[in-house]
Write a structure and sequence with these properties.
By secondary structure, this protein is an alpha+beta fold. It contains three helices and eight strands, in the order αββαβββββαβ. Helix 2 packs across helix 3.
């Protein structure tokens, strides 16, 4: 017996099934392990170092600005943004992944199911297809730097950190 997908999980399953309109089955295994969701068909990703991302989320929440889906991973958070952000420019303070080479994927736990402590949805997809507004994200990240956070992140953010390559 399979557990029905939440509307957010069904939306992500459509990404895996793309260009078919409906997936034939859930892409997640019964053990709940994350699966690679392709970057590019329905969303792009902006990766932001975890500390800056947490402060950016706080900035957005304080202003009642919706974030859209945000995946928390070790050292980096991934904000799902519209595919209209295709000009290849990074958002200052983040790295844009477009999936142009068709190998980029985001290892995603199933929304609505318990996740691991090192990879979970800070804001899960809700099924509406609503994504993070890039200008609002850029403003929030810029605000984290404006308050003196430059250089406070441990390590270096690599474009591929946390991504699955096929």
């Amino acid at each position: 017996m399979t557990t029905p997908l939440t509307s957010g999980a069904a939306w992500l399953a459509k990404v895996v099934a793309y260009p078919r309109r409906t997936p034939r089955r859930s892409p997640w295994p019964p053990d709940g392990k994350p699966v690679p969701i392709p970057i590019g068909p329905l969303f792009h990703v902006v990766r932001v170092p975890a500390g800056s991302a947490a402060r950016a989320i706080g900035y957005l929440e304080a202003r009642s600005i919706a974030t859209g889906p945000v995946l928390s991973q070790p050292h980096v958070w991934s904000f799902l943004v519209p595919t209209s952000l295709v000009d290849g420019r990074d958002i200052p303070g983040g790295v844009l992944l477009t999936g142009r080479d068709r190998t980029e994927a985001l290892m995603c736990p199933q929304p609505g199911r318990p996740a691991s402590k090192d990879r979970y949805w800070k804001a899960a997809p809700d099924g509406s297809g609503r994504l993070m507004d890039p200008p609002a994200l850029a403003e929030a990240i810029a605000n984290t730097f404006a308050v003196g956070d430059i250089g406070s992140e441990p390590g270096h953010l690599a474009p591929h950190e946390g991504a699955a390559h096929g």
